[in-house]
Amino acid sequence: MNDKKFSANPLMNFKNLPAGMKILLIAITIGLSGAAFVITMAISDKTVPRTAHVCFSGICVKAEMAATPAMRERGLMFREILEEKEGMLFLFPSEGLYSFWMKNTPLPLDMIWIDNARQVVQIKLADPCLRDDCPSYESKTAARYVLEVNRGFAEKNNIKIGDTVKIEY
Q1: For site-directed labelling of 68, which of 9, 30, 36, 48 has its Cα 20 to 30 A away?
Q2: Nearest 5°: CA angle at 77, between 72 and 78?
Q3: Which residues contact 123 (CB under 8 A, 6 or more apart)?
Q4: CA atoms within 13 A on the CB side of 78
């Protein structure tokens, strides 16, 4: 029979463990801490590129990235100014039918949905909305990205459904 006594105090129990078991527990703890750190960093702005260049034939936009759920939810809310060749690129984990609304967004926008093949699949004009009952805007075709730019950008630059898009991070 083992004559080592275990205490209700976990620290005392740790002291009584064999050296190999202590090393294993420390490694597991460090591993879990590391995993939590990696997950936290993946969600932070440090691992998600801050900007991307989204280029159509002849014109590029410097776009802020919205790659996490929190970033996508906030989007361009409360933004008063968006420069001519600037925008926000919403990146989703996979293609899907993603819906947007303009709550608390005072800027009129063009929304350009882009699929995995990096082709434009939908373009919609979105009106500013400072109420709670804002309309939704959704693509009829699955997309992986949505680029929001100032209203009129797509028309001015002759961007159409089927156009190829180059995205550089």
Answers
A1: 30
A2: 155
A3: 110, 111, 112, 113, 154, 159, 160, 161
A4: 2
The one-letter code for the residue type at 91 is: L
Q: Which pLDDT does position 167 carry in this prediction? A: 98
Q: Is 148 exposed, middle or buried (0-12, 13-18, 19+ CB in 10 A)?
A: buried
pTM: 0.73
What is the model's pLDDT at position 32? 46
Residue with tokens 């591993």: 31
Find out whether 117 and 138 touch, Cβ atoms under 8 Å. Answer: no
pLDDT at 39: 37
Structure-token pair, residue 117:
């093949």
**Quick one: fold of 51-168?**
Jelly Rolls (2.60.120)
- Round to whole Å and give the CA distance between 165 and 113: 11
Radius of gyration for the chain, computed over Cα atoms and rounded to the nearest angstrom? 24
Q: What is the DSSP letter of 105?
A: B
Q: Is the pLDDT assigned to residue 82 strictly greater than 50?
A: yes
The predicted structure's pLDDT at residue 96: 98
CA distance 132 to 102: 10
* Dihedral over alpha carbons 92, 98, 101, 102 (to 10 degrees): 40
